[in-house]
User: What shape does this take?
Amino acid sequence: MPKAKVNNIELYYETHGEGYPIVFCHEYAGSFESWDQQVGFFSRRNQVITYNARGYPPSDVPGRVEDYSQEQHVDDLRGLLNALGIRDAYIVGLSMGGNVSLHFGILHPGRARGLVVAGAGYGSTNKEAFRRQALEFADQIEAGGMEAFGDYTRGPSRVQLLRKDPKAWAGFAQRFSEHSAFGSALTFRGVQGRRPTAYDLEEDMRSLQVPTLILVGDEDDPSLEPSMLMKRCIPRSGLMVMPQTGHALNLEEPDLFNRAVLDFVTSVEAGKWPARQSGSGVGYLVEDDSP
Assistant: This one.
């Protein structure tokens, strides 16, 4: 079982294929297994690395809330790249992993050839309410275990997977139920409950020059506005909104997700992913209907 020693813990990881590396960072309710359909697709042409964040067995589950934070997640990713001898890579993340991807690009731009930030920014529009909810969720898990938290996989931005692909949803829900309750609660308290919002990062995003693809589902309401903010702020960004899609983009629409990421990588490699340019000075024509 491959593990890398990172920041005094061990992270479980898998690597498949050969070529320029792409690293996939999972969401809160996911794991390295969530990326299976991406691994099969991209490992035909790239080295693909998936891993479990701290708190997600078989990675270690540190025992203090102080061991969990957005900054620590980013530093764990940097440490994993170091342990694997990878100088730079494409970083692809969903939700919690999307925040890792974005923060990694901000903090370590020289180590990211491109970023994919999918379904990220949850909690940005109502910061205090989101943080209260994160702590309530942590309390719920600590009191009743993962079994008491099963409705999380049926939330308003997750029922789309159940509607589209019941078998995929059943596998996703089963894997979620097997997560460490201790690690999941601490992740809510230390990561989601304390991370900065997309609005807190506005200045940093305006300075970010790493090519960035932003992906969001049109039924993932908490992530729509933050995704628009990212598009407005990050100079070399593109935004794709997937129709009738919720939060689990890569599971709901794997073909569309894979194609979007492949087109992005291909454009970056060809030098065809430019920064947004200002207009030529010619505005839109507004017809005057006045008499």
In short: The chain has eleven helices and eight strands. The chain has a mean pLDDT of 94. Strands lie at 3-6, 9-16, 21-25, 47-51, 89-94, 112-118, 212-217, 237-242.
